[in-house]
Amino acid sequence: MLGSDAVLALDQKGSLIHTVSREHHPKVGLETEAAIVHAQGEGHEHIDPELIPTEEEKKTLRKVAGKLPSVTYLICAVEFAERASYYGCNGLFNNFVNRPLPVGGDGYGAPPRGTQQTAGALGLGTVKATATSQSFSLLAYALPLFFGWLADTKTGRFKIICWGVAVCGLAHVLMCASGAPSLLASGGAKAPFFLSVYTLSIGAAMFKPNIAPTLLDQMPHAVPVKKTLPSGEVVIVDPESTTERVMLWFYLLVNVGGFMGVPTAYTEKYIGWWLSFLLPLLLYVPLPFLLWFMRKRLILYPPGGSDLVNVCRVVGICFKRGGLRKIFTRKGGFFEAAKPSVIAQSGNVIDVPWNDAFIEDVKRTFEAAGIFCFFPIQNINDNGLGSSASALSTMLATDGAPNDVMNNFNSLSIIVVAPILNYGLYPLLRKRNIHYGPIARMTTGFFLSTCGGAAYTLLNYYAYKTGPCGKYGSSETCVDANGVSLVSNISVWLMAVPYAIGGISELFVNVPAYGIAYSRAPANMRGLVSALNLFTQAIAYLVGLACAGVIKDPYLTWDFGAPTIIGFIMMCAFYWIYRDIDKEEYKLSVNDEQMHVADQPIHDGQSASEKAGPPSYEGEKGGLKDKDREL
């Protein structure tokens, strides 16, 4: 049911697109749709009082996840295809840049069979290989700040997703060209390879900050409601549990896509670069057709302008009104000074285009940003500082396995454990009314990542101790008279342990982070806040770039050990600072830009609703003008 401020030709083909009152409900297939009645002209939902659980019922009734709309699985499939093409290439960069063409190889980049050599191409060394892989990842996770903001304010999320797919497609074609034997032999592969690397990072930056919010836009309900099961049991359909379930599926398919690194690593070692780069391209080809199929089946929000300016103004008012000292107190209150009700009580006349609820949104957004600040150290402990994990793998006995295949145990552990959490642990906890909140889950994840960092440290210590070159086991000079690498007798397969632990930790950290980024942001800043979540990974890569000069022998043990120690300390600090968030009830912001207005006038004398004007619709192909569509 739509409010009076939104009109839609439901009998026409086309996407369901909300404007002005951004309702959070798909048009069909809801378990709770009969309970939802929207107030005329408002962007909030009102639930039949009989279906609202009481505080006592919230404590006693079992919570269950809601039914997922079928389109959510299609979005997860889109993410799978994009991530498969991304990770299928990303894992190859280090060997392509670091190692030269193998001695005695066939010219395609693969080493002779039966040797301990690894594939190579450019032979630029460890430092430049680290700089390449880290700068690629840095751009892929920093540029989303711009593209998330652009989607919120100008283009809408779906259009940016489509643009990103087109840019990534061009990058894959260029990367395939760089694997040509003639270019590898002459050194001419550098230009197409580096151009393709950074083009791919831009395309990924367009895609990544917008796909998760688009997925969560499809969720069927935003508040807890009671439901009677066929068995007669009364349960609470919990939006937090629904979000957790869909994002676990999302993250699982991300990592199924990550397994594309396995065939590309083997083809790199046994066939050559041309096939390693071609496989991701072939998997990428269906993606545009899948997006085309989905475009009329999605709930899409048109861009409504970002609240970033208002957020900055809120912070400025809080500082001016003596809020600085409240930042460091546990009781908080820093943002109270910007609430219109507080301003009115103070006797000051300040015209502000928001209401008290918007200030609560801003407060929750800054809490989310603070939570994300702890993620870089977790990312470093998961995967090693810079390319230190890759350097460690070159010191260990491969016994015919590509050294680049080990990091796929990160994805394997996620694929195995995610269904256990989704259908085993989390339902069991809900059945026993044990609230395992996002902060508790993240703390668990930080602990696991610290354990993974400790495992890396021990492996590197013993690789140095048992290797023929001591603390210079990953150096280019650690070769025999024929140029063949000398390695420790420790198997490279032991690296599966820290990689797997790191993968499990991501399920407890990254999956709740999607929900926090979405639920704690104002409605038209969700792309930007999701990008802030991704940006923390860019910070981890930036640290890797800054430390590139010391990610080499003989410092590798401390490259793993120092982040492990820091990670344990930050885990303790994180839980102490944010533990109270687990006591809060999960809720979404329903305060879009039209609902931010209290009764205060705007400077030009118009109210915000008057200034915005009514939405524009036409009754053709979905009932909206082309300029209002996200396609």
From TrEMBL:
This is Major facilitator superfamily (MFS) profile domain-containing protein. GO terms for cellular component: plasma membrane. Belongs to the major facilitator superfamily. Proton-dependent oligopeptide transporter (POT/PTR) (TC 2.A.17) family. It is a multi-pass membrane protein. It comes from Botrytis tulipae. The chain crosses the membrane at residues 136-153, 160-185, 248-266, 272-293, 439-459, 492-516, 528-551, 557-578. The lineage of its organism: Eukaryota, Fungi, Dikarya, Ascomycota, Pezizomycotina. Residues 599-631 are annotated as: Disordered. Its main location: membrane. GO terms for molecular function: dipeptide transmembrane transporter activity.
